[in-house]
Design brief:
Strand content: 5-15%
Helix content: 40-55%
Largest sheet: 7 strands, mixed
Structural class: alpha/beta
């Protein structure tokens, strides 16, 4: 765990110890006395270099404990200065120190209405740097997570702990062990990245899961595999973050047909995870429909499935879809547009320049992300 303020790390350690389910190693934490002030440049140019040696020593000790090292998964936010600036810097350090290891970043996209006034600067600078160093970037959007908490889990006063619980559940659903019947392989990080990132120009992944039900309602709920997978496939093609309110008017059509207002969201690759009873006999053929995928992706490489008969969490049946698709184009385009507008008016730019980055760094970041948007838009 890395943070520039001790308060968050101390709170996390105490909550884990109080739960009795998990305890963090005391020697695997790094913090300082002062935060980054929601300034990406402060985190990247000042706190990152200061923390580098100590954090890399911690990482090395943890790697040396592994019997079989599978790679890195870094969890970070985009809105503030530490998660974005220090996170981007340390990701580059990991790539430099471990050039042949798999490296993925899980990022939390800020609320569209705004958490921090400079969040679009921080997010744009972070994403452009991660795109140069990470093998994959798993995106979670706070707006979607908030809807899941309020509309599906019936949580009234939603806290960041509630949102983090949803992220943890969705990540666990794709990272806990499962087996591919075709290859006999497990869902190791390297295996997943090989299947999901066929080209280094396309690194943005997202997770969709079903069902999400409050514990109170779960006792009165019944789920079938055909019903779950029908909803999950529609969530994929309609670019919906959850099953409630999904647009059923969106249909898959041949790729040479003219685009319309109900055009579906195409994919590069999808990995489906089925957990629970009778998952071995479930029909998953709708997800292998070649119309879902870009024409240049080999048919046998576009879709994979992993299964585990053990129930997941408190659900007897649970399905997850880890996707590399056109879904991030909308929020990424909005983010870059807002950042461009702020930069054009020179709003808050001076606060970044005083920590050593130049206006060209902003322009390079915008150019990188506009190329990403263009690549995904042309799938």
């Amino acid at each position: 765990m890395v943070d520039m303020e001790p308060k968050v790390i101390q709170q996390t350690i105490q909550e884990a110890k109080k739960s009795g389910k998990w305890q963090y190693c005391e020697k695997a934490q790094f913090c300082q006395k002062r935060g980054s002030g929601n300034n990406w440049a402060h985190g990247y140019s000042h706190h990152g270099p200061t923390a580098r040696d100590a954090v890399m020593d911690i990482v090395q000790r943890e790697v040396e404990k592994c019997d079989r090292f599978g790679g890195f998964l870094s969890l970070m936010s985009l809105a503030g200065g530490t998660g974005s600036g220090v996170g981007a810097y340390l990701t580059e350090c990991l790539r430099e120190e471990y050039p042949h290891s798999f490296l993925a970043n899980q990022i939390v996209w800020p609320y569209g209405t705004g958490e921090v006034i400079v969040q679009n600067f921080n997010a744009a600078l972070t994403l452009s740097h991660l795109y140069q160093s990470a093998d994959a970037i798993i995106v979670f959007e706070n707006d979607n997570l908030h809807k899941i908490c309020s509309q599906l889990l019936s949580i009234k006063n939603i806290s960041f702990q509630d949102i983090n619980s949803v992220i943890s559940q969705e990540l666990a659903s794709v990272l806990q062990p499962a087996m591919s019947a075709d290859s006999g392989r497990t869902n190791s990080p390297g295996e997943l990245l090989e299947r999901l990132v066929p080209d280094p120009q396309y690194k943005l992944l997202n997770v969709r899961t079903i069902p999400h039900t409050s514990e109170r309602a779960l006792a009165f709920s019944s789920f079938t595999w055909p019903g779950l997978l029908k909803h999950l496939r529609q969530m994929l093609i309609a670019n919906a973050g959850m099953e409630e309110g999904v647009d059923w008017q969106v249909k898959v059509h041949s790729r040479d047909r003219r685009l319309s207002s109900t055009d579906f969201t195409p994919s590069l690759a999808n990995v489906l995870f089925l957990r629970g009873k009778q998952c071995e006999s479930t029909d998953i053929s709708p997800f292998s429909d070649p119309r879902l995928y870009s024409s240049w992706v080999p048919r046998d490489a576009a879709f994979s499935v992993f299964r585990q008969q053990r129930p997941f969490h408190h659900y007897e049946k649970y399905a997850s879809l880890l996707s590399n698709s056109q879904a991030p184009v909308g929020p990424l385009g909005s983010l870059v547009g807002k950042a461009w507008n702020m930069f054009a008016s020179r709003a808050y730019v001076h606060q970044y320049l005083k920590y050593g980055i130049a206006e060209e760094d902003f322009l390079d970041s915008f150019a990188t992300l506009e190329q990403v948007i263009n690549n995904y838009s042309n799938l």
